[in-house]
Design brief:
Elements: H1 3-10, H2 17-32, E1 37-41, E2 55-60, H3 66-71, H4 77-86, E3 90-95, E4 108-114, H5 123-133, E5 134-145, H6 163-171, E6 176-184, H7 187-192, H8 201-218, E7 230-238
Parallel strand pairs: 1-2, 1-4, 2-3, 4-5
Antiparallel strand pairs: 5-7, 6-7
Length: 240
């Protein structure tokens, strides 16, 4: 592992609980299938795949529009080069549109998309293409805002799915799809969303503390069925 990856793993207890949850799910899948190929769609720097024992490939749209720039969406050549230099398990980073992907059919064991589908106008085409690039028996792991609770105020979000809506969409293409609620809201979550910087040490410390508290709250029994008060949906779908 690189120094960057080791540093990330050392700070993992105070990283955002959504990233930690995704990483746990990926580790569970990867340990069942050694040497698997994972595609992270819209992954940018793909921090949640650090330390996952798999071959990581990242695809994303180029960062071109003002909305993308203001919301830190998409990737640039500089981001690609920086990520490849810092990461030991990232094999490739490419520009690609998953609604009309150029990737080969049946190329991956797992596709992950963290907070991506809400940005996609043609969501059915996206899900169909994910299914196409997966090998038989492959997994699709994704998260998106919880439309049963979170109002859509983001200028780039096309929609927020309710749990039943997302499950129905995934089951149009996949043999099975399990959708659960994830990550409790509240003051601790809001604190955790604040940026980290050496210039603002108190804000950074409060953000770390908020993430730690939010993680504990989100791991309580019953959260997976808690429509009100959770901010995300987490889904795992399986191809035949």
């Amino acid at each position: 592992m690189t120094l960057f990856e080791l540093s990330y793993l050392a700070l993992q207890p105070v990283y955002p609980p959504l990233h930690r949850r995704v990483r746990r799910e990926l580790l569970t899948i990867a340990r069942r299938h050694p040497g698997m190929d994972i595609l992270d769609v819209g992954g940018r720097k793909s921090h949640y795949t650090i330390g996952v024992p798999a071959n990581i490939n990242v695809s994303d749209l180029p960062r071109e529009t003002e909305v993308q720039k203001s919301l830190h969406l998409g990737v640039t050549n500089a981001i690609i080069q920086q990520t490849l230099s810092r990461r030991s398990n990232v094999r490739n980073m490419i520009f690609d549109d998953m609604t009309k992907s150029n990737l080969a059919t049946g190329a991956f064991d797992c596709v992950v998309a963290v907070e991506v589908l809400e940005h996609v106008e043609k969501d059915r085409e996206f899900v169909k293409e994910v299914n196409r690039v997966l090998k038989p028996g492959g997994y699709f792991l994704m998260t998106t805002p919880n439309g049963d609770f979170v109002k859509n105020k983001n200028p780039d979000h096309k929609r927020h799915y309710k749990r039943k809506e997302l499950a129905g969409l995934l089951r149009e293409e996949f043999e099975s799809a399990n959708v659960v609620y994830a990550i409790c809201g509240g003051t601790s979550r809001r604190l955790g969303l604040k940026g980290w910087s050496l210039r603002t040490p108190w804000q950074t410390l409060l953000s770390m503390i908020g993430n730690g508290i939010s993680e504990m709250a989100s791991n309580r029994p019953g959260v997976a069925e808690m429509a009100i008060g959770t901010h995300h949906l987490l889904a795992i779908a399986r191809k035949k």
